[in-house]
Amino acid sequence: MSPAGETGTSSTPPRANAQAHAVGLPVISDNISLVGVNVKQVGPWIKRDVEQTKECNVDAMLQVLLQRSSCAPDAIQPELLQKCLEVALPVCNGQVSTALVKSSDIALAFHEYVLPGVENKYYSPFIKATNIALACLEGINVDGMRAAVPAVDMICQQHDMPMYQTHQTVKSTRRPDLVLLPFKSACAPFEINNKDAQKRKAHMDKNAMASPKNLPWKDILACIERRTKPEYLPVDHPKVEDPAPGPSQTPATQPASVAAHQTKSAKLQFHLPVLLLHSLPRPGPANAGPTTLWNPPPKKKNKTDETEADVTVQMGLYAAEMFAANLGVNHLLNLIVVDDVIWIWYYDRQGIIQSSGINFLQDLPRFMVLLYALQRFKLEDWGRNEAFLSSQIEGKQCHEFEIEDENLGTVDLQLHTSHPERVTHYGLQGRATNVVPVTSDTLSKKYTHIQKDEMVAKIFWGETSRTSEPEILKKVKEIAKVHASVKDHIPELLWHHTFTNPTSAIREALGVPEPTKGSRVLYILVFRKLKPITELHGTEFFEVWRQCILCHITLWKEGVYHRDVSPGNMMWYWKDGKRIGVLNDYDLSSLADDLGPRGNERTGTVPFMALDLLTEAGQRGELKHLYRYDLESFMQGVLLPTGSRPLDEWATSNAVACRGKKLAFLNSLEAYYPSDINEYMGHFLVICVRVLRENGARRSSRFEERILNRGAMEQPNDEEPEDVDGFLHIFTNTPSWVKLTELSNPSQ
Fold first, then answer.
1. Disulfide-capable partner of 203 in 207, 224, 534, 707 (CB 3.0 to 4.6 Å)?
2. Residues 4-58 pLDDT 10s
């Protein structure tokens, strides 16, 4: 695709064959609006996720896709790929005709594809070949496979035009080369009746190769990005010198059922025009051989190279847009084409899986099977969550959700997804938290003390190895019964539901190593609506913040470790004419007796994490989480600048870089100190900075003394009990804390 060629908050970088280079593994903010983070600045986070891509054999991926589009998707059907390869042969060999097309034109289109030319000249022949193949495959029946899905009616469409999407108040701009989408959606920009067969033929011949305007991201089933030179894809594709079609090499972890039918598929006999395709010249510049993603040949990079995204990262940005456009998405598929090889990329909240490549000139049957499977996908097979049904309420986009509850019967939720207060997520893997205003007749009848518009739904992907947030909140609620500092200061969970399809299932089917590590399931939790602490200033801010700290320390001593303190997780509400602070968001919390594995779970929000946790050792999970780490996060949440917001760059750096910026802040407060801050808040800010700085200096001094007095080999006692009350007392005993408490509670 081409550069956007216009200004915008976030534009896709221009195409380039930029080499990938390693970055850190930051723990990132879950919401782009947390501290003003711009969508354009999430590229490094997308790249970090791409670098963790898992690999699989393409035959294993095709087998999984076929099984999903079969009549019995939950049954093991090891012969599906072999049967579909055999049935695809007549299409490959030009022996199939329909009222609109004949399959012999596929070879003609690919003959045009390999002719030299500029990049966008390759779009039309690829689109022609794909759409002709889809038309020919539509009427082919394979025992056990579904028919093509009329409600989707997939077609390949040129795009390469700006696509816009708003994330909170931030607009992104992307330009995918080609897209797969429902035919009805493809026709809409051209005002064509998609039910007219002749007009369908006209669209395939002309409009499919034109660039439509204003396509919404929610309609895109998959993006296809093309390159004329290989970039750094993790799985090698077959060398062009190999004239014989055949299966890719089977990994050692490949299921035996897949390995068995690969041998059979190698014996398939192809006829003209497939043999003609084998002899066609390779499109674009010659390729010296297979490449790998993260070990490119050495190259001196210039400044421009460092700002350009390679195709894998760019495709990750498209996936982030697709995730954001649809509520509760289970997974996504995208396709990357380099010359005559196509790779399948699968995205879900556990991570990314990339298949080995299909050379669609030398191994046309496998490309046909890929299209055959996708053509039979229902919307839920494309990853759309069928539980969230799109609807309109008073002319605004909403989603409806109904589910049977053993105690309440049918629970109805109207999710107001176009509401300005909705908080969305932008990214690939992780919790992907969305917070949406919600109304519910069922829950309004049960909770009569809550107004109908005072509920929100939290939708996120929790790691299965963790104690769930509802279980954590059950423990928190028990603590609240006996501790006044916790009572009224915790979120009120009204209802929750856990979906049962783990992300690990496809990894087990594909034979991916460690398939359950970091596995996730989707949760929906409904809470009473709260107000954010960021609305408050001065003593009002301090009082809510103070209540959250006192709630937090009680929970800590009772065995509930929050582990994700940030301004976004401190809320408040009115009760008896007073602001009541609430410590919110327990999906990263842990219990003292919970010793389960953590997988690849993110354990905080970078700008507010303690300095020790932002080190490389902290990011590797080698440090025991201490109370002072959470308290340090509270202290770093005091300063909430407005205007230029000089501290926003903390949120766009990786963890180690953020640590350096925070150290610079602690050592040069005068450069950041706001001139209009409340006098006592200013005093308290200085004390917080001083305590954090001096505490760090003392620990560094103790380390130096150990080396000087006992030798570097002796290690400190990490199991030494922590003085929780003593560390908090350093702050609560200051004159500023006492004075601010008095000002916040004049009647006490």
1. 207
2. 333 333 333 333 333 222 222 223 334 444 434 455 667 777 888 898 999 999 9
Tokens linked to 55: 């690999």
Which pTM value belongs to this model? 0.83
**DSSP conformational letter for 542:** H
Query: pLDDT at position 290, please?
Result: 32
155 closest CA partner among 378, 376, 375: 375
pLDDT digits (tens, 9 = 90+) for 79-126: 999 999 999 999 999 999 998 899 999 999 999 998 877 666 889 999
Residue 321 and residue 165 in contact, taking contact as beta carbons nearer than 8 Å: yes
Q: How far is CA 108 from CA 127, 337, 706, in A?
A: 12, 19, 76
Radius of gyration of the chain (CA): 28
Tell me if residue 527 falls in helix, strand or coil: strand
What is the phi-psi region of residue 191: left when phi exceeds 0, alpha when psi lies from -120 to 50, beta otherwise?
A: left
For position 600, what pLDDT does the model report? 38
Q: How far apart, in Å, are the Cα atoms of 196 and each of 153, 183, 203, 554?
A: 13, 12, 10, 68
d(CA 237, CA 286): 14
Rounded CA separation 400/233 (Å) = 40
Taking CA atoms, 605 is separated from 27, 157, 167, 518, in Å, by: 6, 39, 19, 18
Instruction: Kindly report the three-state secondary structure assignment for every residue of 54-106.
Output: EEECHHHHHHHHHHHCECCCCCCCCCHHHHHHHHHHHHHCCCCECCCCECHHH
Rounded to the nearest 10°, the torsion over CA 99, 103, 109, 111 is -150
Q: CA–CA separation, 367 vs 381, rounded Å?
A: 19
Q: Quote the CA–CA distance of 493 and 475 in Å, as a whole number.
A: 12
